[in-house]
Design a protein that fits this description.
phosphoprotein; Heat Shock Protein 90; 10 helices; 5 strands; 5-stranded mixed β-sheet; iron; nucleotide-binding; alpha+beta
């Protein structure tokens, strides 16, 4: 159900002003019946400017005020057209700047005194006394004050509503921006996970498949063992993939928890099974670290070993060190030719590892090692 207050549209406001002016002109024309042609003329002249009171409130007020002053000089009695004066005061307080509304109110008070004196004398009073003037001044002043107060209150309410609308729109834009940033971060995170899982699993499978192809001709038993390693690696990669896809679904996915520091030893065993010489210095018992830090360290080691298989060349030896004190420190170095290996420009491994480290307030340095090979060092604060 719509709770917004009913308001006139642009066309309705135009017709309201036309009918208002028409009514004042019709009432002012009634002076003709009383043979008061001057009063009828001033009534019409004072009412007509109100047609533009919304778009040009200040000029309309000045015009009505000057016509009222001219009427006070020419005529000694009130007219119907003077109803336009409080309407003009309301219009200035409603749609003009505040200072113009205050000036209009002060002018109206002065006009109340002048009109009271003029009407008193015009109606036959012999002298101006406080007892005669005060009732007229108070009555006219109350009318213009009420008109000004209504216009001022309407302007204040409109500004307040406009500020609420602006703040609501700003809050909506900020919420949309936060959702967009959260979605982008989530896409980046899933992309890193997909890259690490797919690249690592496929690199192991490719290396094992190449080895099995050459070994099959000489030693079928080696080929069988290698095919078993390929199958095991494929199953592990499939499990990882199912876990990642489960993150995109709602509810319980029923998949295994994310890997951590304790699973780094499995990466080392897998790399050795694939034919990579790995010298690992790992804690005997995996320390208890936050899940996010443990996953980041696992993925960095996983990607580093994948890069060794892809770029270091055959026969490369990898040295892996993992220690935990006030931070999780991962160091991976190989003696291959990865630093000089050609790149297709599409690799995302180092970028993903650096992003993982930065998410946890850590750092990652990677580059050619002195004496050849490639070195990587990551530090993840606890």
């Amino acid at each position: 159900m719509d709770q917004h207050p009913w308001r006139l549209g642009p066309r309705g406001r135009r017709w309201f002003d036309r009918l208002l002016v028409a009514a004042l002109v019709a009432l002012g024309a009634s002076h003709v019946l009383a043979e008061q042609r001057g009063s009828a003329l001033f009534s019409v002249l004072e009412a007509v400017p109100l047609l533009w009171r919304r778009r040009h409130p200040w000029p309309v007020f000045l015009a009505v005020a000057m016509l009222s002053a001219g009427q006070a000089v020419a005529l000694g009695e009130p007219t119907i057209g003077q109803l336009a004066f409080p309407i003009a005061v309301y219009s200035v307080a409603r749609w003009a700047p505040r200072w113009q509304g205050v000036v209009a109110l002060l002018v109206a008070y002065c006009a109340a005194v002048v009109a009271a004196a003029r009407w008193t004398l015009g109606l036959g009073a012999e002298e101006l006394t406080a007892g005669v003037l005060v009732p007229y001044v108070v009555t006219i002043g109350a009318i213009v004050t009420a008109a000004w107060a209504l216009g001022f209150a309407a302007q204040t309410r409109e500004r307040y509503v406009a500020s609420l609308v602006a703040r609501a729109e700003q809050a909506e834009r900020m919420a949309e921006r936060e959702v967009e940033l959260a979605a982008r971060d989530e896409r980046s995170r899933i992309a890193r996970e997909m890259h690490d899982v797919v690249a690592h699993g496929l690199s192991v499978i490719v290396v094992q498949a190449d080895g099995a192809r050459y070994a099959a001709a000489k030693d079928p038993d080696v080929a069988v063992d290698t095919l078993e390693t390929i199958a095991s690696t494929g199953r592990d990669a499939l499990t990882e993939m199912r876990r990642l896809l489960g993150l995109l679904r709602e509810g319980d996915t029923g998949v295994a928890p994310q890997p951590g520091l304790a699973d780094v030893r499995h990466l080392v065993d897998e790399a050795r099974a694939a034919g990579t010489r790995v010298e690992a210095d790992l804690p005997v018992d995996a320390p208890d670290v936050p899940d996010g830090v443990g996953l980041a360290a696992y993925r960095i080691v996983q990607e580093a070993l994948t890069n060794v298989r892809k770029h270091a060349g055959p026969g490369a030896t990898v040295t892996l060190r993992l220690r935990v004190d006030d931070a999780v420190v991962v160091e991976v170095r190989d003696d291959g030719h990865g630093a000089s290996a050609p790149s297709d420009g599409r690799g995302l491994g180092l970028t993903g590892m650096r992003e993982r480290a930065e998410v946890h307030g850590g750092t990652l340095d990677a580059g050619p090692a002195p004496g050849g090979g490639f070195a990587l060092s990551a530090r993840l604060p606890l």
